[in-house]
Amino acid sequence: MATTASFIIVSRNDIPIYEAEVGSATKREDAAQLHQFVLHAALDIVQDLAWTTSAMFLKNIDRFNDLVVSVYVTAGHTRLMLLHDSRNDDGIKSFFQEVHELYIKVLLNPLYLPGARIASSHFDTKVRALARKYL
Amino acid sequence: MIGASKIKQYSNVLEKPLSKGKQEVSLSAFAFLFSELVQYNQTQVDNIAELERRLEDAGYAVGARCLELLCHREKCVMFMPFWLSQGNRRETRLLGILSFVHSTVWKVLFGKVADSLEKGTEHEDEYMISEKELLVNRFISIPKDMGTFNCGAFVAGIVRGVLDSAGFPAVVTAHFVPMEGQQRPRTTILIKFAEEVLRREARLG
Known about the structure:
The complex is a heterodimer.
Chain A: E1 5-10, E2 16-21, H1 31-50, E3 57-64, E4 67-73, E5 79-84, H2 89-107, H3 121-134
Antiparallel strand pairs in A: 1-2, 1-5, 3-4, 4-5
Helix pairs in contact in A: 2-3
Chain B: H1 27-44, H2 48-74, H3 94-110, E1 116-119, E2 126-131, H4 153-165, E3 170-177, E4 186-193, H5 195-204
Antiparallel strand pairs in B: 1-2, 2-4, 3-4
Helix pairs in contact in B: 2-4
């Protein structure tokens, strides 16, 4: 089943530090920009919502046509945002939790500056593998 | 090799599981490392304020990572009822994050909770965490000509890193407070929150 999914990690200072198209559908030329635009537009909503609840997983905070944005906010206010069209909430939650663990391992590197781009190709491979598994 | 156990070799650090961590680290090793850190920074700077700032920056990096790691470890507690373990919890309130620093962070870093957490009386935005003797200061003596310099600036940096990453920007400093009846003064970490934190707290009610 082809799913569109766009995944982005945004740091505390609203700078994207990692992005990937993890859906299995074929990419259209304008799709990438559109997905990024929708995700960035959802940042405002996340900012307000993040302070009203102490949960980390916020589901379905914004809609665009038939695409839905779900967000997972970590303790350090790093936002993992996913733009998707499926309704698989449990799978998405597990995906977020696993990526959160990967992110913490990257963060624990003393040479990694918090808020810098995550350039590790290994991290990229793992995120895509997780996306295939859970989404 | 005698007693060689089958330790799985991981090709990349991202494969290794996030463990509970060793509960104890050698105190002398830490004291040695910390003294080298202070001495190294002393050679790089001309004045005390700069030295304090450098120690604070070193602590800030530790604090930012501490927050994420400890919040993540908290959810893996065995005795939680099923419904509680469903989601991780972030701290969104001022008192919440302060007691997190005072208990959890202190317990993991120094092996015990901080001695006391007080609210400042003169200003609304000041809070103080006191400790009879900071672990990092235990093997350090300050020469008279360095005045009010306190190596607790490292710990102040850690607290600032935790608070800043959680979204509560603050100015954190370490002070010696002389106590009657004791030779060594008590150390107080003074936390002064930024305006926006108080406004947001008031808004959240």
